[in-house]
Amino acid sequence: MLEDKDRYGLGWSGEGYKRETYCAHGGRDEGMTCHAVNVPVVRASTILFDNLEALEASDGSRLRYGRSGTQSNFALRDWLKGYEGADEVWLTGSGMEAILFVLQNLSKSGREILVADNVYLPTKKICEKILRPRGVKVTYVDCRDVEDVSARLRGDVDVLFMEVPGSSTFEMADATRLAELCRENGVVSVLDHTWSAGYFYRPLCEGVDVAIQSASKYCGGHADVMMGVVSVKKGEVMDSLRYVEDVSAVSTSPDAAWLVLRGARTLSARMRRHDESAREMASWLERESMVAKVLYPGLESDEGYGVWKSRYEGGSGLMGVLLKGRSREGLASFVDHMELFGMGFSWGSFESLILPQDQARNYRGVMGFPEVSGEEETTLVRVHIGLEDCEDLKRDLSEGLLRWKKSMT
């Protein structure tokens, strides 16, 4: 028998499949696929019923009104339930909408939420522009400091919101341990796990109450769809969010669901390649003379390597690179002339990307910004390693680093 964290779906008479098999076969109910290999795109606002009895019997069923989804949406939700180890999954229009849906509905006026200081900047904007004005107390914490977080899980605290690893700078926190402490204190643990896409770390199977990811990234995998995912186990949190979802019609289009389910079929092969290539590229970058530090938990030199090694089976393609020195002109010469590394927002697709991230210095509070001994000034860029050959990527980056070096002299 497979352990719970290694079981995906209900194949083999309830025992479940291994991960790679599930990615390829999950969510393929014949009633939804019409015997096609891929679930078709079903677009509908109105669902017709054969008679009055069928209409009355549909109360409580999911295929009742297009606002709640069609076969395309439900096939993806079913696949995600088995993939995440969830009892319920909701699809939203983007990862940010998923975060807003959860934080807005689990926080209360006059109560407190704890938020990791290294979360994605728009998450902090939700806290500052939406939650605080409604009377929610927001406290930012360093989730690496388990003792400090544990001491704060008291009184009026309802939620601990984590992002692991941290946005832009990729600090590792032990979400499994923190979720355990939350349970002991009656606090809801929420984790944005977009970095690993649930592939190398399954939050719900590790005790986290609510798992959030942007399916625009690895699950979609082709840079052509926007979607967020909220996954939960049975319990009060599920019941609370389900009620809100029902009356507010949180959903996404059938076309978007079809695109993400298509991407899910190759997720296993892609994540393995991202992991392998990112580790090779991170090790190579570490040795480059103009690189002050590589921020990637899969490196043995990384401060979070111990936590990552103990909790994760692998990594993704996303990392931070601190370049030696600082120059707007030099940065432009570095990023503007890349051949393979495109420059744009988002990541998680087949292509490699690079993006300046020095603005992250401006919105860190209790955690501060990574410093490098002996380097007075550094410049942070975020690098996503795609599915290209690593030798080609090294050549592209080598030429960029040479341009950077010349700009520093």
Describe what you observe in this structure.
The structure is a single chain. By secondary structure, this protein is an alpha/beta fold. Helices cover 37% and strands 15% of the residues. The chain is globular and about 80 Å long. It starts with 10 loop residues before the first helix and ends with a helix.
CATH-assigned homologous superfamily of the largest domain: Type I PLP-dependent aspartate aminotransferase-like (Major domain)
Strand order of the largest sheet: 1-7-6-5-4-2-3
Helix-strand makeup class: alpha/beta
Listing every helix as H and every strand as E from the N terminus to the C terminus, the arrangement reads HHHHHEHEHEHEHEEEHHHEHEHEEH
The major β-sheet equals: 7 strands, mixed
- Count of helices? 15
Structure described in brief:
The protein is an alpha/beta fold and 409 residues long. It has helices at 11-14, 19-25, 30-33, 52-57, 71-84, 95-106, 121-131, 146-152, 175-184, 236-248, 254-264, 267-286, 305-311, 328-335, 390-408; strands spanning 88-92, 112-116, 137-141, 157-163, 188-192, 210-214, 228-232, 291-295, 318-324, 353-356, 378-384.
Descriptive keywords:
409 residues; Aspartate Aminotransferase, domain 2; 2 domains; seven-stranded mixed beta sheet; four-stranded antiparallel beta sheet; 37% helix; globular
What is the fold's blueprint, element by element?
Layout lengths: L10 H4 L4 H7 L4 H4 L18 H6 L13 H14 L3 E5 L2 H12 L5 E5 L4 H11 L5 E5 L4 H7 L4 E7 L11 H10 L3 E5 L17 E5 L13 E5 L3 H13 L5 H11 L2 H20 L4 E5 L9 H7 L6 E7 L3 H8 L17 E4 L21 E7 L5 H19 L1
Parallel strand pairs: 2-3, 2-4, 4-5, 5-6
Antiparallel strand pairs: 1-7, 6-7, 8-9, 9-11, 10-11
Helix pairs in contact: 5-11, 6-7, 6-10, 14-15
